[in-house]
Design brief:
Layout (H helix, E strand, L loop, with lengths): L2 H8 L4 E4 L7 H14 L4 E7 L2 E3 L9 H9 L21 E3 L15 H14 L7 E7 L21 H21 L4 E6 L13 E8 L5 H5 L1 H14 L5 E8 L4 H12 L4 E6 L32 E5 L2 E6 L6 E4 L4 E3 L16 E4 L3 E7 L1
Parallel strand pairs: 1-2, 2-5, 5-6, 6-7, 7-8, 8-9
Antiparallel strand pairs: 3-4, 10-11, 11-15, 12-14, 13-15
Helix pairs in contact: 4-5
Length: 370
């Protein structure tokens, strides 16, 4: 996909995150943002960032070459106590775990890595770029991902060590605070396991709920739909206004049934929805994304209907979810509704009117008014 095609696809959505990097240069980043915003002025656009790991190598001409030298000099890598080697959470991208705790040294300006990285990202990527609404921060976890000598005492510390975990969260919080100080008015969104801890609670305007459906480790798969939805409601409550929570489902293909199940579940509350095909960077587009269901006409439901189906009415439609793993359920939604008209799944999206809707287990449905 070309850059122009990529921008055109992003502009079709209500919210998008782009992996801008320091080597692009701000003029190129600004051009990218301007192009997307010219296509869709209402889109909320985020710039990707990550604090808890970073690539381990850079050439002298690279924009982050000096930063990597400073990381080495100030002990900002997480290292194994026995070997002194940098530790990795995953070897896939050549990235290594950083030590973002206050046990590390400060640089000549009194900064540890969270403050330094906030300054680097601001100076080289999004600072002063018009049209970037969010900094999206990946891997905002409750604790580090790898055992290492975070205390710098000569002994490795387990990721579950509560003192180390709290220090790690405080390092993330320091990054939040530094980003806000350097970029007044910027909003922050994180891919986070939980926002309930004191360091994270109501410190972010958005949250990304990664692959809540569709993988063997997804919350819906492991703990069930009710637990997943409880987390969704919590993320909405634990963020600041405007509570831009993204609910994501992931599938091996662009399969409409799983996509609808996730989309309808997301629409039971007020967040955004994303569907990703595993292994593909560009998201697919579905007929349902163009459905004119209108604005919510009801508050998010707190219980299922008598039929067992969860329902929420919109000004020009209705969304339905059957979360049962075993039982098909039916509901009378009243007269005046029809199926969407689409080409990807014409058996379901056939445009026909229907009043009594039957949903198979673990499925969702969007209907629009006639």
């Amino acid at each position: 996909m070309s850059h122009r095609q990529d921008r055109a696809l992003i502009a079709r959505f209500q919210l998008g995150v782009v992996s801008f990097y320091a080597g692009m240069g701000k003029s190129r980043i600004q051009d990218y943002v301007d192009d997307i915003k010219s296509r869709n002025p209402a889109i909320k656009l985020g710039s990707y960032a990550v604090l808890s790991e970073y690539r381990g190598l850079a050439l002298p001409g690279d924009a982050d070459y000096t930063m990597l030298n400073d990381m080495e000099a100030n002990g900002w890598w997480a290292r194994d106590a026995a070997t002194g080697n940098k530790v990795q959470w995953t070897q896939q991208y050549g990235a290594y775990q950083t030590n973002i705790t206050a046990w590390t040294r400060t640089d000549a300006n009194g900064r540890r890595f969270p403050q330094y990285k906030a300054g680097f990202d601001t100076d080289h990527i999004f600072g002063g770029v018009r049209g970037i609404d969010y900094v999206y921060i990946d891997q905002v976890n409750d604790s580090p991902s790898v055992n290492a000598d975070y205390v710098m005492s000569g002994t490795n510390h387990h990721t579950s060590d509560p003192v180390v975990a709290a220090a790690h969260r405080q390092g993330q919080r320091d990054y939040f605070d530094a980003l806000r100080s350097l970029n007044p008015g910027i909003r922050l969104m994180a891919n986070a396991a939980s926002l309930s801890t004191p360091e994270y609670y109501r410190q972010l305007e958005g949250a990304f709920m990664e692959c809540q459906m569709g993988k063997d480790w997804s919350l819906e798969t492991v703990s069930g739909w009710d637990t997943m939805m409880a987390r969704y409601r919590n993320e909405m409550a634990q963020t600041r206004a405007p509570h831009d929570v993204i609910f994501q489902a992931c599938g091996p293909t662009a399969e409409p049934t799983l996509m609808r199940y996730g989309l309808a579940s997301a629409m039971l509350h007020d967040g955004f929805y994303a569907f990703s095909v595993i292994g593909q960077l560009s998201p697919p587009w579905f007929d349902e994304y163009s459905a004119q269901v209108g604005a919510p006409a009801q508050a998010p439901p707190v219980a299922a209907t008598e039929s067992g189906i969860w329902m929420r009415r919109y000004t020009n439609g209705v969304v339905l979810v059957n979360p049962s793993k075993t039982t098909a359920l039916s509901i009378d939604i009243g007269a005046g509704y029809r199926h969407l008209t689409g080409t990807q799944d014409p058996v379901v999206n056939n445009g026909q009117p229907e009043r009594v809707i039957t949903l198979q287990p673990r499925t969702g449905m969007l209907m629009v008014k006639e």
